[in-house]
Amino acid sequence: MAGVIIGSVLGAVVAPTLMVPALGAVGFSALGPVAGSLAATAQSAGAVGAVFSTLQSAAMGGAGMAAVSSVFTGVGAVVGAAIGYFAAEGSPVKRDGGDGSSEDTK
Question: What's in the keyword line of the UniProt record (predicted)?
């Protein structure tokens, strides 16, 4: 249980720091969508809706930043909790021992 708690707290703290680089990686910048990027392609294809606008607002440091940061925090907490759980408990995945037999690793 401690692994889940520690993982979720670390995930919730670390994930928001990845928000700006993640938005930049798909082409959202402080000046608008980057030419030739996924964001620019989506914009030129007419896929401009609430999600696009919120992501662009977050990249520009606007009102969308709170919403996108909250999503990154929540996802980070869930992923961190899962990592903490599996690190503490071991993977429940059955592995093939190479001889056709399966072995439960948990």
Answer: Membrane, Transmembrane, Transmembrane helix
